[in-house]
Specification:
mainly alpha; 10 helices; globular
């Protein structure tokens, strides 16, 4: 969460020309950071779904949380259209999570962590599906998927012009990896989830518990601060 906020603040500083011009779309210094941040975000989301299934989360609670994620995704689309009408976000990280959470929940009804982690065949199967999901967009592409109505699948021939893009493929592979890893830990090393949070990282744990709220609010605070600073200096 901290890394994401720092990345977004750097992007905002660049947009407001408070730093030397940066290319956040092609410069590996920035694109690799984005790859790492999104990967960590979706690994955590997959792990969180495994914990929720293991804790007996009902479908009612799942859909309530899903509605929050989907609603925030819609707000992101609206807000990004206001700021970037030519490159607004039609399928960013929250949109991708909304779709992939449903897929993981369906997986959880058939392979809850307790069953998955004790079956070598199931472990191999989920790992294989995750690998195929990550690999498929690199070898399969079709122009049919290049529109805003179809690019959510991920089998595109070129990257869309948008400020954030997290399609189901390949990113479902990352969420499946998080689900699988957390399932193994819940069964074979449960203390990883039940132990006390070390005091030194306790503030970060708070951010994790309120991750969606932080995600939605932090840019408003950062951009609002820069707008205020620009007004003061003009």
């Amino acid at each position: 969460m901290v890394w994401m906020a720092g990345f977004h603040f750097s992007f905002d500083l660049n947009q407001y020309r408070f730093i030397a011009p940066q290319n956040f779309y092609d410069d590996p210094f920035w694109t690799v950071q984005r790859l790492c941040i999104v990967s960590m975000f979706l690994l955590g989301a997959g792990a969180g779904q495994a914990v929720a299934v293991d804790a007996g989360q009902t479908w009612r609670r799942f859909w309530r949380r899903w509605a929050q994620v989907a609603g925030c995704a819609l707000l992101v689309s609206v807000g990004s259209y206001a700021m970037f009408p030519r490159s607004w976000i039609n399928f960013g990280v929250l949109h991708g999570m909304a779709v992939m959470l449903v897929l993981l929940r369906l997986l959880g009804t058939r392979l809850p962590p307790a069953r998955l982690a004790r079956s070598p065949a199931a472990i191999t199967g989920v790992a294989l599906v995750a690998a195929v999901a990550w690999w498929l967009p690199h070898v399969v592409a079709n122009r049919f998927f290049d529109t805003r109505l179809t690019d959510w699948v991920g089998l595109i021939t070129h990257l869309p012009v948008t400020e954030d893009y997290v399609p189901v493929l390949p990113w479902l592979g990352m969420m499946l990896a998080g689900y699988l890893a957390a399932s193994l830990l819940l069964v074979h090393a449960r203390a990883a989830f039940t132990g006390a949070v070390p005091a030194v990282v306790r503030p970060l744990a708070v951010l994790g518990r309120w991750s969606l709220s932080f995600y939605m609010i932090h840019q408003l605070v950062l951009i609002g601060s820069l707008e205020l600073l620009r007004m003061i200096h003009t």
